[in-house]
From TrEMBL:
GO cellular component, one term: Golgi membrane
Membrane topology: Single-pass type II membrane protein
Pfam families in the cross-refs: PC-Esterase, PMR5N
Protein name, UniProt field: Trichome birefringence-like N-terminal domain-containing protein
Every Trichome birefringence-like C-terminal domain range: 145-438
Family of this protein: Belongs to the PC-esterase family. TBL subfamily.
Domain Trichome birefringence-like N-terminal: 93-144
Keywords on record: Golgi apparatus, Membrane, Signal-anchor, Transmembrane, Transmembrane helix
Chief location of this protein within or outside the cell: Golgi
Entry coiled-coil feature ranges: none
Subcellular location: Golgi apparatus membrane
Length: 443
């Protein structure tokens, strides 16, 4: 019924084909795959990576002006009012996420030869000769953070199951995390979906499992492609229903690290927003049948659904909520010749990111604090405010070294496309593991 309604409201909808996600995995789905299937899967995964790589964040560095211009009463004006700040004492000693990057005299935790790194994040393989971005470590203002100890971590996590839930930023982190953990023991990949977006690794000696669950909105969403060559998409987004890929498995997890997937909410696409399986509003929908809803209001609804789900579940894992991961495009955006070729980190206080990043992070902090005040933190919900450390690292993103910078865009662009959103590996994102280990083992 919903699909029929959307087909009626949007021109040429009969040309769409829904892109359905694969079903939940069984533990043995991928273990017996033939080599040719593996190779074809890699090629298919690579093609989809290139297809979505920049299009998925087509509006990543825009302000929330679309919501403001729409006249929505719920629009965020990022520059107005006092910044809303939540101070969270993670270690009992100091705020681990308030500090700066200092020179690191030690080698990186792993090398770019780690086989778990996707080509798009392997900046050295893609020609980056200046590797100084690997020679920094995160130093909190009032304490220190030990470097990640994979032996200690795996021993502590024996018989545990972790889930990393989010978009390609979390895929970026998962590759870093697995590379570090593979030092004591190589994990076995026991599952992957056909696009290699959803993966499960197991460390046999420790009976420790890590699942990467690619969930671009965290909530339930269906995508329709109108003209794949132009990358125009239509989304049906359920603000009150979480993505089953992770929600249906929640009771099996001991630890969940989840990101809001906020970059996808800023996508320059048509959205129909559903509650109780009924369309209640839309965005860029070019119809008067439904009211326009601002990005901020929709993002709040999703976050509220996540926190209510965590609080209401009888299962109580440790849930670590990661905030916004900033981009560092300068002199333009990804599609207007933007670059990020700085050679060193910013100093603390030197740069606080873009207006849209600050606005989206503020929403995350406000909703997290609201959940805590309502007692929803009883599910061992923890804030992992990565924004403050990652906003200082313009030097650590791939820029031209993502492996496809010379690809001409599908809309006849004649200039290279650079990546200033994801992170080179090894690199700055490795610090997430240092901080998560401190957060988890010293809780």
């Amino acid at each position: 019924m919903v699909e029929a309604l959307v087909t009626r409201l949007v021109p040429d909808a009969t040309r769409w084909a829904p892109i359905w996600r694969s079903s939940l995995p069984s533990a043995t789905t991928a273990t017996n795959s033939w080599p040719w299937l593996f190779v074809s899967g890699l090629l298919l995964g690579a093609s989809f990576t290139l297809f979505y790589y920049f299009n998925e964040y087509s509006a990543v560095s825009r302000t929330l002006s679309a919501a403001v211009d729409s006249g929505s009463s719920t629009s965020v004006h990022a520059g107005e009012g006092k910044p809303h700040r939540v101070v969270v004492d993670l270690s009992g000693k100091c705020d681990l996420l308030n500090g700066e990057w200092i020179p690191n005299p030690f080698a990186a935790a792993y090398t770019n030869s780690c086989r778990f790194i996707a080509n798009t994040q392997n900046c050295i393989t893609n020609g980056r000769s200046n590797t100084s971005y690997t020679n920094w470590r995160w130093k909190p203002q009032d304490c220190d953070v030990p470097l990640f100890d994979p032996d200690k971590f795996l021993s502590a996590m024996r018989n545990k199951v972790w889930a990393l839930v989010g978009d390609s930023i979390f895929r970026n982190f998962a590759e870093s995390f697995i590379c570090i953990l593979s030092k004591p023991e190589e994990p076995v990949e026991v599952y992957h979906d056909e696009r290699y977006e959803f993966k499960v690794w197991r460390f046999p000696s420790y009976n420790f499992t890590v699942s990467l669950i690619w969930s671009r909105f965290v909530s339930k969403a269906e995508m329709y492609n109108h003209d794949i060559s132009e990358m125009h998409s239509v989304f049906l987004l359920h603000t009150d229903v979480l993505d089953a890929k992770w929600a249906d498995q929640y009771s099996t997890f001991d630890y969940v690290v989840v990101g809001g997937g906020g970059h996808w909410y800023l996508r320059n696409s048509t959205f129909f927003y559903l509650e109780k399986n009924t369309i209640v509003s839309c965005h860029y929908c070019d119809t008067r049948s439904f009211p326009e809803m601002g990005v901020d209001a929709v993002y709040r609804k999703m976050l509220n659904s996540v926190f209510r789900f965590v609080a209401g579940s009888a299962h109580k894992p440790v849930v670590i909520f990661a905030t916004w991961s900033p981009d560092h495009y300068e002199n333009g955006e990804w599609n207007t010749r933007g670059t990020c070729n700085r050679a060193t980190p910013y100093r603390r206080g030197e740069y606080d990111g873009k207006e849209v990043g600050r606005a989206m992070r503020r929403i995350e902090l406000e909703e997290f604090e609201r959940a805590a005040l309502l007692g929803q933190g009883s599910a061992r919900l923890k804030l992992f405010d990565i924004y403050r450390l990652m906003v200082l690292r313009p030097d650590a993103q791939p820029d031209r070294y993502w492996g496809g910078a010379q690809q001409v865009g599908r809309r006849k662009r004649q200039w290279p496309v650079y990546d200033c959103l994801h992170w080179c590996l090894p690199g700055a994102v490795d610090a997430w593991s240092d901080l998560i280990m401190e957060l988890v083992l010293n809780e």
